[in-house]
Design goal:
With 355 residues, the chain is of the alpha/beta class. 43% of the residues lie in helices and 13% in strands.
């Protein structure tokens, strides 16, 4: 367990920043921690990612997998550069990763494995610089194969979550923002934020002198209790972003434009609504705009607009204005429709749900 003190004088500055590297780690952890398919809502992504990685001959480094398994999905902080809210650049994060001193890598590995570094992690301990360079070459290849086909819905979900948290921060303050974070791995008690990173509750590590807190939303945040600190006292903590159900749909094949209207056999939502309108309903598990939804689904904006008009009229979808943007999201009946007709285990009800 990592304990982060949140004294009012210590976290007056709170920021929200996305990180493609942290998101990538979250997805790798999901793949490497399970022999079978990942749970809902990652199942379709899991199946497609494994196929794509096999075709591209991309293999997760053998020394990386034991790091996830040692502490229930967590990773040593030397692998987690603190995200820069003004940057969000994978290339810069990989450059920072390559610059980590070998002595720091070995020190954290010894702390990670107090009973001795296992043989599988031996190559990293023996030559940290070479292994981190290997990781720097692996991550972009992995991203292209496993994550790029889902880049649009991932971006939509992350951006909408950041907008949601930023609005809470601006209107209600950091106390309410921290209270809005979800997940059994991230809890708060009094003025301490606790990140549960291992099976042993009594093992606690306190983070001193938090000068700035950065919250990192991850669509793949389930089972990814990540945190990192910089020398200036900046501390970053990952949390589960809203809208992970954007991964429910299959990624469109390369070069495909639009969705065929013929429903997939046995897909009740497709049969009921038609495939493109069913795709619109599935795409609205997180608030989004017409243009972003069209880009995600590969449909013409006019087609998406037509579907949205019908769904709003039917009371399945609601529309709201946020500044200059018009956002669409599932209303209560839409959540019920997706939950029952899409054979999914759970779809979160929207805030301020109407009957």
């Amino acid at each position: 367990m990592i304990e982060i003190p949140l004294r009012r004088s210590g976290y007056g500055t709170v920021r929200i920043a996305d990180s493609r590297l942290w998101e990538t780690y979250g997805s790798i952890g999901l793949l490497s921690s399970r022999r079978g398919l990942a749970p809902w809502p990652y199942t379709n992504w899991d199946r497609a990612a494994r196929r794509s990685l096999t075709r591209a001959e991309v293999t997760i480094p053998g020394w990386l997998v034991p790091l996830y398994r040692a502490r229930g999905g967590a990773l040593p902080s030397f692998l987690l550069p603190v995200p820069d809210p003004s940057r969000g650049d994978l290339t810069a994060d990989l450059a920072a990763l390559a610059a980590v001193p070998p002595a720091r890598v070995r020190q954290e590995l010894e702390q990670w494995f107090p009973q001795g570094v296992p043989p599988e992690v031996g190559p990293l301990y023996a030559d940290p610089r070479a292994r981190l360079a290997e990781l720097g070459e692996f991550v972009p290849r992995y991203w292209r194969a496993a994550m790029a086909p889902y880049a649009a819905p991932l971006r939509v979900a992350t951006e909408e979550d950041i907008l949601l948290r930023a609005r809470i921060l601006a209107t209600q303050g950091p106390e309410r923002l921290l209270g809005s974070l979800r997940g059994r791995r991230l809890t708060r008690r009094d003025d301490v934020l606790r990140l549960h990173v291992g099976p042993v509750v009594r093992d606690r590590t306190a983070v001193p002198c938090v000068s700035r807190l950065i919250l990192v939303p991850l669509v793949f945040g389930k089972g990814a209790p990540y945190s990192a600190s910089a020398p200036d006292g900046t501390t970053a903590v990952a949390y589960q972003a809203e809208g992970a159900a954007v991964l429910l749909g299959d990624a469109p094949p390369p070069g495909r434009r639009g969705l065929a209207e013929a429903p997939a056999r046995g897909d009740r939502l497709d049969i009921l609504l038609g495939r493109s309108r069913a795709g619109v309903v599935r795409g609205l598990v997180a608030p989004t705009t017409t243009s972003d939804l069209a880009a995600t689904l590969g449909l013409a904006p006019s087609t998406v607009s037509e579907h949205l008009t019908a769904l709003v009229a039917a009371g399945v979808v609601r529309r709201r204005r946020e500044g200059v943007r018009v956002l669409y999201e599932l209303d209560g009946p839409g959540v019920a429709l997706l939950r029952h007709m899409d054979n999914r285990r759970r779809v979160n009800a929207p805030e301020n749900q109407t009957s």
